[in-house]
Amino acid sequence: MRKLLIGLLLIAAACTTRTTVVPVTTGTGASGPRPALDAFLAAIRAKDLQALGAAWGNKDGAIRDNKQITRDDLEKRELVLMCYFSHDSYAVQSDAPAAGGERVLTVKLTRGTISRTTNFYVVSGGDRWYVRSADMEPVRDLCTKKK
User: Fold this and answer.
1) Residues in the chain with pLDDT values less than 70
2) Cα gap 136→41, rounded to integer Å
């Protein structure tokens, strides 16, 4: 009788199923302006083209999904962004409203001993936020300087 009970318990345990709930996300953009900037700069630092294409966009969504430029051109532009905005650390200096419901975040980027401050323009694309553009001129020398 004892062996039968143990056998039934083993069979019952083997037949148990578990359900795991996985949250659904769009996979692009972020929940707000600051998280969008954080995702964009994390992708730059990690040299992750896919993540950068998901964080960079406009009111129509992620740049990688809106088919306005070819995949080849997208990757070339991402490589340029990675060069110009290469950094070891960053600090947001300010976050202010801008035209068209955008936000402008002034950010201090540091690479080695060099620090430069520039503006990032963040836009809402539906319920997600994307970095639309940034001022490249102030950080131009971050691209040419070696660590």
Assistant:
1) 1-26, 145-147
2) 14
